[in-house]
């Protein structure tokens, strides 16, 4: 038996065995690094998972099964969604005169015909009456601040929803 083993244990087999061990060690170290990094990106206790990953093979398998969900990315997505909804809400307001819901680029209130915005004479974008220049095409426009809102204090936006 020992003779057979000694015959099999040639320098070639030794070299192959060493290579395999080195390969496994590299794989082992990389798996720990991957677990720690992945857990960190997911907002989990990455150091705990790095210790778990020290158990060869089983640690990585356990991590794959039990790793925390993508908390950080989820949170970012939720914040983005809230911001988008707020932007959507900002597009709407109400008529300063009658309270009818109007969109940001309405020029007239469809209900009471109060003028909400000026129209740019050049590019026909709806402009805030306080603006003296069109931000779309740089045409100077006459500000008509007092036409329909003589009582509105300067600096307040006339059609913002938070005024209601
Ligand atoms: Zn109105
Ligand atoms: Zn313009």
From TrEMBL:
<keyword id="KW-0472">Membrane</keyword>
<keyword id="KW-0812">Transmembrane</keyword>
<feature type="domain" description="DZANK-type">
    <location>
        <begin position="95"/>
        <end position="137"/>
    </location>
</feature>
<dbReference type="InterPro" id="IPR025874">
    <property type="entry name" value="DZR"/>
</dbReference>
<keyword id="KW-1133">Transmembrane helix</keyword>
<feature type="transmembrane region" description="Helical">
    <location>
        <begin position="12"/>
        <end position="34"/>
    </location>
</feature>
<dbReference type="Pfam" id="PF12773">
    <property type="entry name" value="DZR"/>
</dbReference>
<feature type="transmembrane region" description="Helical">
    <location>
        <begin position="46"/>
        <end position="66"/>
    </location>
</feature>
<dbReference type="InterPro" id="IPR036280">
    <property type="entry name" value="Multihaem_cyt_sf"/>
</dbReference>
<protein>
    <submittedName>
        <fullName>Adenylate cyclase</fullName>
    </submittedName>
</protein>
